[in-house]
Amino acid sequence: MHLLARKVLVLLPVCLVAFWFFNQRSTPYAHVGINRLYFLALTLILLFTWFIVETVYRKQRNLIQMFLQSSFFIYVFMVLTLTGYFILFREVSAQDWWSKMQLRIQHRDHVNLTLLQVFKIYKFSDKQVLGNLVMLLPLGIYLPLLYKLGRKPLNVIVISFMASAGIELLQLATRFRSADVDDILLNTLGACMGYVIFAIVRSMTAADGSLYNNNDTPLISTR
């Protein structure tokens, strides 16, 4: 397959998903201020510029590499969607949103700043707990497969913690969902579980080199 065709096929799925998402949700943005729409467009341009740069920079030697890269882009976009990132541009355009957010923190309105409260309310098997564990679990697998930086457990912990903290701050500003410090704990723990899964599979396949070369260079990572 031609090199350009491979890169197009890597990018095409996430482009289609983004087009479908905004096509289905165009009405709620009809009353958003033009400046907010410009800012939304700018963030989308930056996001897809990153996707394009990643695709151009990387090599796609086989279908596994193509699927891995393409699915990672879709995963990132879906996490932004599920956590209310695109709602931010509607919410913060409302009048006095900053004061409302401060009042929400003061009155603990769907805001939890006390660690481990979630286990006093929900069982481990409840969706609130399992959902937060699963959400960043793929990140713990993608990071070591795609980035050398992600092959160190500490880096996975730091990156997943920062990603989860950003999500909770976003939800605090939008009121899309509860802002909960326990979610950060569960998200980070989920990413660590993903890394453990990666490490187990790597150890099981290290003998035949299906994941790594003899020099410990990832075969399905192209950096």
Note the topology.
Elements: H1 3-24, H2 34-57, H3 63-82, H4 88-91, H5 97-106, E1 111-112, H6 118-121, H7 127-135, H8 137-146, H9 153-174, E2 179-180, H10 181-205
Parallel strand pairs: 1-2
Walkthrough of the structure:
The chain is mainly α and 223 residues long. Helix content is 67%, strand content 2%. The protein has helices at residues 3-24, 34-57, 63-82, 88-91, 97-106, 118-121, 127-135, 137-146, 153-174, 181-205, and strands at 111-112, 179-180. Strands 1-2 form a two-stranded parallel ribbon. Helix 1 packs parallel to helix 3, helix 7 (127-135) crosses helix 10 and helix 9 packs antiparallel against helix 10 (181-205). The longest helix is centred in the last third of the chain and has 25 residues, at 181-205.
Keywords for this entry:
single chain; 223 residues; mainly alpha; two-stranded parallel sheet; flat
Return Rg in Å.
20 Å
Largest sheet: 2 strands, parallel
The portion of residues forming beta strands comes to under 5%
Order of secondary-structure elements: HHHHHEHHHHEH
Strand line-up across the major sheet: 1-2
Structural class computed from helices and strand pairing = mainly alpha
Distance between the termini: 21 Å
- Please give the number of β-strands: 2
3D shape: flat
DSSP helix fraction: 55-70%
Number of helices: 10
Mean pLDDT: 82
Spans of at least 5 consecutive residues whose pLDDT stays below 50 are 212-217
